[in-house]
Amino acid sequence: MRILAVCGSLQAKSANLELLKLAAATAPEGVEIILFSGLDRLPHFNPDLEAGGAEAPAAVTAWRRALAESDAVLISSPEYGFSLPGVLKNGVDWVIGSGELERKVVAVTAAVPGPARGRMGLQALQQTLGAVRARIVGGEPIARGESFEREVRALVSSLVEVARAARAGDDSI
User: Fold this and answer.
1) What is the pTM of this model?
2) What's the rounded Cα separation, in Å, for the pair 85 and 78?
3) What per-residue confidence (pLDDT) applies to 171?
4) Which of 58, 81, 118, 128 is the most buried (most CB within 10 A)?
5) What is the pLDDT of residue 115?
6) Which CA distances in Å does 122 have to 30, 65, 86, 132, 148?
7) How many other CB atoms are there within 10 angstroms of residue 34's CB atom?
8) What's the Rg (C-alpha) of the chain?
9) Which positions ≥6 away from 42 have C-beta within 8 Å?
10) At what angle do helices 148-167 and 15-25 cross, to 10 degrees?
11) Where are the domains of the chain?
């Protein structure tokens, strides 16, 4: 199983990036978690860039291909201004029409300093992913601390379970 890990933060020392690296390092056997690092190279969404049959910009093609080649997606994203980061919204906008995220199993979370943080950003992210009818797993922030690794592993396990069921055609999970 291949899971694409996407960080909503562009910050080099992001706690959300650390969460994704931990997920990749502790993934169950047979599960490959690949970190996508190209959100910052996506141009602002503009349908005119593909008008008249023009080829999509290379960064957009790479983003779409990474999503298409994944069985599921794991997004860890900070909350900016009570919402999701613009770079992440831009990434979703680029695939609404092309369909690479359509009905995809997507786990969402945020690495936060305390349990009361990050919820509004995750709600905004889930609402945005509703445009592609993504199957959401998780949705709760994970507070950094003693149980951080255990909670990250539990989220990845849930994501794998739902993605396997989706691949088998079982929509009951």
Assistant:
1) 0.96
2) 7
3) 66
4) 118
5) 81
6) 28, 25, 13, 16, 18
7) 16
8) 15
9) 57, 59, 60, 63, 87, 90, 91, 94
10) 60
11) 2-167
32 token code pair: 């490959």
C-alpha 7/C-alpha 154 separation (Å) is 18
**For residue 63, how far is the Cα from the chain centroid?**
12
Q: Report helix angle 86-96 to 58-68, nearest 10.
A: 80
Specify the pLDDT at position 116: 82
5 membership: H or E segment, kind and range: strand 2-7
Q: In the prediction, which pLDDT does 103 show?
A: 97
Mean of the pLDDT values across residues 22-46?
97
Residues facing residue 15 across a β-bridge: none
CATH number of this structure's domain 2-167: 3.40.50.360
Which residue, among 120, 165, 162, 166, has the nearest Cα to 139 in the 3D structure?
A: 120
